[in-house]
Sequence to fold (351 residues):
Amino acid sequence: THMALLRKVNQALLFLLIVAVCGILYKKARRAAVSSSEADEGSEPPEDVDEEIPVVICAAAGRMGATMAAINSIYSNTDANIVFYVVGLRNTLSRIRKWIEHSKLREINFKIVEFNPTVLEGKIRPDSPRPELLQPLNFVRFYLPLLIHRHEKVIYLDDDVIVQGDIQELYDTTLSLGHAAAFSGDCDLPAAQDFSRLVGLQNTYMGFLDYRKKAIKDLGISPSTCSFNPGVMVANMTEWRQQRITKQLEKWMQRNVEENLYSSSLGGGVATSPMLIVFHGRHSTINPLWHIRHLGWSPDARYPGRFLQEAKLLHWDGQHKPWRSPGAHTGLWESWFVPDPAGIFKLSHDS
Ligand SMILES: *[C@@H]1O[C@H](CO)[C@@H](O)[C@H](O)[C@H]1NC(C)=O
Fold:
């Protein structure tokens, strides 16, 4: 009859429901067993956990506000699983921790790393035309494999940057086999080149190395070779170690102390010259939109607004820092500022 049919349908549905529940329970149990056996073996985490992206950035005593703004911009513009390695000198480490833990940055995943500047003894000339560039932390990028052990691929950023894109994109930069690092070249983008010309910047090796010196001529690198800026770098620690990049950089630092090899105009600072030598012809390239630079070279020279909107990363290299003096595109920087919970670091117009 009608009722009997309905009862049969009900029984069938109940049966299906039980099968489905059993299936789900079975899957759950199996997943639990799999993950616990993986944990036992201490093997790789399961694939659906996002890979950690290590970002190395320095925090110098007088400009920690720059570091925090950069971190804020990176963290706010990505869903990626980032671990920040914030590098400082011993006497600033507690202040770095406090700034992060007592501000909106408290949610970030971070490690504080101490850089011991004694490794630099005898490797830096004290007579630089821009003494501020002799800050020991400028050389942290030379020593990445000594500071970072858990990761093969690493991002290094200068503190005076703001990231507007998703940092995952930068991390996905392909490094060619045999290349320990990727940089963005100083001649890659016409708009950036016009800008360099406007503020009178060198964008060739001649701007960084003294071609009257024999050691430089002997390198056989044309002085008109386009330079690159090492303030944004994606690096492979395995290659770096295999090629002993740190040792090579130290060798050129030492030779510079003895023979004064860098150009006196020093477009981009003392850390750039040895990198130009060591990585000449053996580095990969970063998408130029991931390194729009020179924003700190002149308080008046400005990029077109539309161009800046497309930029993934802005770099205020040069002497006009956006936290010190009102200058080019300061507003873009200030929107990422994280106030100092200790009240020490202040924006110039607030003090
Ligand atoms: C890093 O370099 C090593 C050695 O050449 C290579 O095996 C590895 O695939 C590279 N990793 C990345 C992420 O490029």
Remarks:
- Strands lie at 52-58, 81-88, 110-114, 153-157, 161-163, 181-185, 228-236, 284-285, 313-315.
- The domain at 53-191+229-259+271-335 is CATH 3.90.550.10 (Spore Coat Polysaccharide Biosynthesis Protein SpsA; Chain A).
- The chain has a mean pLDDT of 86.
